Amino acid sequence: ETGVTQSPTHLIKTRGQQVTLRCSSQSGHNTVSWYQQALGQGPQFIFQYYREEENGRGNFPPRFSGLQFPNYSSELNVNALELDDSALYLCASSRDSSRTEAFFGQGTRLTVV
Amino acid sequence: KNEVEQSPQNLTAQEGEFITINCSYSVGISALHWLQQHPGGGIVSLFMLSSGKKKHGRLIATINIQEKHSSLHITASHPRDSAVYICAASSMEYGNKLVFGAGTILRVKS
After folding, report:
1. Which of A70, A109, B8, B46 has the least CB density, counted as fewest CB within 10 Å?
2. Closest CA in chain A for residue B50
3. How far is CA B55 from CA A35, B47, B58, B81, in A?
4. Chain B: nearest CA to A106, how far in angstroms?
5. Which of A21, A106, A108 to substitute to test the interface with B, most B CBs within 10 Å?
6. Cβ contact, residue pair B45, A103, below 8 Å
7. CA dist., res. A108 & res. A97, Å (int)
């Protein structure tokens, strides 16, 4: 039990639709990072939020966006879904963005058809 | 070349065997993480280390900063150790975001 929960656990969407994935972090964890993990690959960094502001972004297009809320929850939004967006989406939270342990959620398995 | 490379990609072992998974990285790091991922996706942090060696139960993680290399060892392996093991670098070059290796798929047979 990491104290980080993600919802939903599984989701099927149609190409072109929009999706919102949610992550609830531990209290006091000011940093949340989102990762995309395609089948058979390691996770790839999407972006990080620190105290409700974006604090770094990986090589993902603008249709991937996020929000972080004061209650330590966050969202990942993906617009205009493409088939290649099918993946496991992981969020990880930590107390700050430096050398502290990250706690991962169970992930949301998104399938785009 | 990936910034974090793991080997082997796949590993099958007999129950009781000593297992080593290797990780090499090319970025400057503030810490190196070893993670375990079971089928279904959830990731559990096993170790976070920046120098030396850490031990937890049958798991041992070592890191050599000069050689930019880390190893994860499992002693007396058990079928329940079967999982994907991922090393990830907290990269100073990317503001301490995690850069992941591709993972090592471990299967321990009884």
Report:
1. A70
2. A99
3. 28, 9, 7, 16
4. 4
5. A106
6. yes
7. 23
Q: What pLDDT is stored for residue A82 in this prediction?
A: 98
Query: Which two structure tokens, joined as six digits, stand for B57?
Result: 């139960």
**For B42, left (φ over 0), alpha (ψ -120 to 50), or beta?**
beta
CB B30 within 8 A of CB A97: no
What tens digit of pLDDT does each residue of A63-101 get? 999 999 999 899 999 999 999 999 999 999 988 756 567
Q: How buried is B63 (Cβ within 10 angstroms: 0-12 exposed, 13-18 middle, 19+ buried)?
A: buried
Say yes or no: B60 contacts chain A, CB-CB below 8 A.
Answer: no
Residues of A whose CB is below 8 A from B90: 99
Nearest Cα of chain A lies from the Cα of B11 at a distance, in angstroms, of 14
Which two structure tokens, joined as six digits, stand for B21? 């998974």
